[in-house]
Amino acid sequence: MTNEPIIELHDVAVEFSGFKAVSGLNLSVAKGELRCLIGPNGAGKTTALDVICGKVRARSGQVLLKGQDITRLSEYRIARRGIGRKFQVPSIFREMTVRDNLEVGYCKHLGVFSNAIRFRRAERDGLEKLAALVGLDDVMDEPAGYLSHGQTQWLEIALLLAQNSEVILLDEPTAGMTAQETMHTAKIFNSLKGRHTIVVVEHDMAFVREISDVITVMHQGKVLAEGCAADVQNDARVREAYLGSGGIAHA
Questions:
Q1: Under 8 Å between Cβ of 44 and 223
Q2: Beta strands in the chain (DSSP E)
């Protein structure tokens, strides 16, 4: 990881029918960093991800990707620049096998002929390795609809990796997972540090402590505090606004 910022939000504001979901949000994420966004419901965490990936348009402010303004770009153009987004509800092809899903993920070139060539190269050079990285190498030929909840989440993460997303945005990736699945997900994320920039919205604080380089606490659409787990835990403003007297360990 370097100190070079890859994602920057400057005074970003978003409103929905008069409600200020994000208000004067300033955020900088370094290249290769794993950043966790935490905060109470309605703090603006998911909206922040929506603004970065172009799903929601900022009313004011600026979003930069590697120093380039992407604030007004469409969602698909932002994706083509290397920002991948995973939502709370997985989006996979359940009737297709895991292998077929990954082949679709690798498909970047337009045209049937170029995609067919890409599939052969992907299968030879990367599919098995990618499946092994997320722990799906033993179910490659199973229909994706047969996967467990955790495996389904891992497949969607693999799809983002197959697309070679430089920045990966994830919204509550461990929701509904067993403790064992959550531990495996933490292992996946830690293995990706430095190679990808990852921004995670998450409520499972044990998971956050396990994976985060930096934790950003949001409150009322702004950054309330930022730092490592110990810094956040010892911040009186955070305890008052979100974590309670028990601190981050009991959030």
A1: no
A2: 5-16, 19-30, 34-38, 60-65, 68-69, 83-86, 167-171, 197-201, 214-219, 222-227
Q: Mapping DSSP to helix (H, G, I), strand (E, B) and coil, where does residue 193 land?
A: strand
179-214 confidence digits (pLDDT tens)? 999 999 999 999 999 999 999 999 999 999 999 999
Handedness of CA 80, 84, 86, 87 (dihedral sign): negative
Can you state the angle between helices 112-122 and 98-106, rounded to 10 degrees? Answer: 120
- Show the tokens assigned to 251: 């959030």
Q: How many CB atoms lie within 10 A of CB 215?
A: 25
Cα distance between residue 158 and residue 240, in whole Å: 38
Contact assessment for residue 217 and residue 38, using Cβ atoms and an 8 Å cutoff:
yes
Cβ pair 149, 173 in contact under 8 A: no
What is the DSSP code (8-state) at residue 220?
A: T
Looking at the whole model, is its pTM more than 0.85? yes
Q: Write out pLDDT tens, residues 14-36.
A: 999 888 999 999 999 999 999 99
Strand, helix or coil at 141?
Answer: coil
In the beta sheet, which residues pair with residue 96?
A: none
Local structure of 41: helix, strand or coil:
coil
Tell me how far apart the alpha carbons of residues 130 and 121 are, in angstroms, rounded to a whole number: 13
Instruction: List CB contacts of 149: < 8 A, sequence separation 6 or more.
Output: 176, 177, 181
Beta-ladder partners of 20: 15
Q: Which amino acid is at 234?
A: N
